[in-house]
Write a structure and sequence with these properties.
nine-stranded mixed β-sheet; 19 helices; 18% strand; alpha/beta; 36% helix
Amino acid sequence: MINHSNYKYIFITFIALFITASCSEKQTVQETAHYDKIIRGGIVYDGLGSSGKIVDVAINDDRIAAIGDLGQAVGDTEIDASGLAVSPGFINMLSWAAEPLIYDGRGMSDIKQGVTLEVFGEGSSPGPLNAEMKQHEIDIQGEMKYDVNWNSLGEFLSYAEKKGITPNVASYIGATTVRINELGYDNRLPNEEELKNMQQLVIDAMNEGALGVGSSLIYAPASYSNTAELIALSKAASVCGGSYISHMRSEGNKLEEAVDELLTIAREANIPAEIYHLKAAGKENWPKLDNVIAKIEAARAEGLNIRANMYSYTAGSTGLDAMIPPWIQEGGIKSWIANMQDPELRAKALKEMRDPNRDWESLGAASGYENVVLVGFDNPDLRPLTGKRLTEIAEMRGSSPEETAMNLVAENGADVSTVYFMMSEENIKKKLNLPWVSFGSDARAIPNEGIFRHSSTHPRTYGNFARVLGKYVRDENVLPLSEAIRRMTSLPAENLKIANRGALKVGYFADMAIFDPATIKDVATYENPHQYAMGMKHVFVNGTQVLKDGEHTGNFPGRFVKRDGWQNQCSLADVK
């Protein structure tokens, strides 16, 4: 006798199994995620200081979409990052790449180190410019020529983005730029109305997305300002949620007094403050760094948000203006040169340059003239002097170093780019161990080709970030890789109040540096600086690959990055 109920049970079971299998297959298909790009198997450093972990990172459009074991997930583009460090893109806290990026948007010397954000504004910024300043920008252009198609700082940064640049860009508004807008190159203080106008320029820039206000106080005409002027400008930045950043009035004989001024500005303006390229310049001043660190850490303990940035070399680089009296530079380059030809003014300047008790900063005296090397001339006739020490040139010409410096500026028709050997290796390592110090190259982002090879440069142009990761992290164990990456990424992003950048987190912008920790290193030297760093394999900016196997991809996804909260427009009426 046939048991129909058994058949019925078997049939129902078969159907159930079929449906279950079908659903399981369908579920598996649904769970096979798809992404634009997947970086597989790299040692991922989140930028927050955590140790590296071997996981995958997925990108959709311009954002990080997933981090973890992505298993069977599929990417339109996949990169095998086995053995490579995967990091957030690096933030260059002190960049002079603004105009070079307008001329060549690749930013090669920095992109090949993993820099994905260039920050401008050490005293001067690309805007705001009045008509006279715009004409001056055109007049002083050398071989690197470009149109000046902007007025405000925000207009410049938007113009750069639209023109096409590889890295992201952001900027402080330069206190020097603000001063020139209102006072020109006059050696005087602003009156009440002029100071209000200067504050309004800061407010306007902040409402465009600027990061704060930046100063460079050893250079004319910035050196003509006093502390009260800087407090007033900082108050304008403060009510907008910005910060103050400064190349202080002294990095040498009056270093501690300069730090005191910065702390006063921070307190009086109620504003976070940062020191550009923290250093103690000149051998007799090297011991002062310990006192400076103590001052800063005491202020931080008090509740002030004080921090600094640095570059990873014992030599700095600026111009001969940093060893010539600021007062003789009044009126801009043409007046400066004319003033140096006046016998009375020239004699007074020479006397001050030789006076150890001068009341202005001389990097030449701090370094020792034998440690001053000339690296950049606009006048082609002077270029054979490139790489020579100031004392060598003085001896060749039969004149003193002080006279030679003034004569070279006059003959060049412009300031002369100069390298000053003035810091100690011991102090470099001390600064590398400070958790509140980030990094800035204090240099342009340029290709090692074309007109950029007509002048020498400082090797930090090509190696500042790679040098930290190679020499100081891997070779000398001065600081761990995870900490170095934090200080190049999330620390500056937090200081700058930049949202959704500086860390590898789901939802953050996909700015990424992928490098070989075993081979990354700086190659540039003082004798041959135009050499790219080694070891950076892949770089992404806003989810777009800009460096592939060490070579530029021809992509220009860089954006104008604004301070978080900039949309909350501020007003001069808010300044008390």
